[in-house]
């Protein structure tokens, strides 16, 4: 009986060590986290569609002296409906936001399109 309880105790201790993930070296995900943020202007350069109901906006942005393009659907996983298309005009400039983690254990880099007019004072 004493041998069974000794084995059971050893098993419980071993399980608690593994549960702590490598003896306490577990990195906890989540905040609080700090990010450095840069905002780049993103200009609408084209409208495109495949089915005349769902439309996509093609944007161009300059970052680190390089010109890049991307679509609204690639960043939002959505299309713009035909009836909402008049809200957007060629040449309109919106905000592309890039956040890189400085401190904490959250997502290391977060990029997203903000459909708010780009204010030149925000650009860093």
Explain what the structure shows.
The protein has 124 residues and is an alpha+beta fold. It has one domain (28-117). 22% of the residues lie in helices and 48% in strands. The chain is built from three helices and six strands, in the order H-H-E-E-E-H-E-E-E. It has helices at residues 2-19, 21-24, 72-76; strands at 30-49, 54-63, 66-71, 80-81, 93-105, 109-117. Strands 1, 2, 3, 4, 5 and 6 form a six-stranded antiparallel beta sheet that branches. The chain is extended and about 75 Å long. The relative contact order is 0.21. The model is unreliable at 20-24 (pLDDT under 50).
Total helical segments: 3
Low-pLDDT runs: 20-24
Number of strands: 6
Strand content: over 45%
Order of helices and strands: HHEEEHEEE
Q: Would you summarize the structure shown here?
A:
The chain has 124 residues and is of the alpha+beta class. The protein is built from three helices and six strands, in the order H-H-E-E-E-H-E-E-E.
Keywords, please?
3 helices, 48% strand, 124 residues, alpha+beta
Helices and strands in order, then pairings?
Layout: H1 2-19, H2 21-24, E1 30-49, E2 54-63, E3 66-71, H3 72-76, E4 80-81, E5 93-105, E6 109-117
Antiparallel strand pairs: 1-2, 1-5, 2-3, 2-4, 5-6
């Amino acid at each position: 009986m004493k041998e069974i309880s000794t084995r059971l105790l050893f098993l419980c201790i071993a399980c608690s060590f593994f549960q702590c993930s490598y003896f306490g070296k577990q990195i906890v995900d989540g905040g609080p986290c700090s990010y450095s943020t840069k905002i780049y202007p993103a200009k609408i350069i084209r409208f495109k569609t495949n089915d005349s109901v769902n439309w996509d906006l093609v944007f161009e942005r300059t970052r680190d002296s390089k010109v890049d393009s991307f679509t609204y659907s690639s960043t939002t996983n959505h299309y713009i409906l035909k009836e909402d298309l008049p809200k957007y005009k060629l040449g309109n400039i919106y905000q592309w936001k890039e956040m890189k983690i400085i401190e904490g254990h959250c997502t290391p880099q977060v990029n997203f399109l903000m459909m708010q007019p780009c204010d030149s004072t925000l650009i860093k």
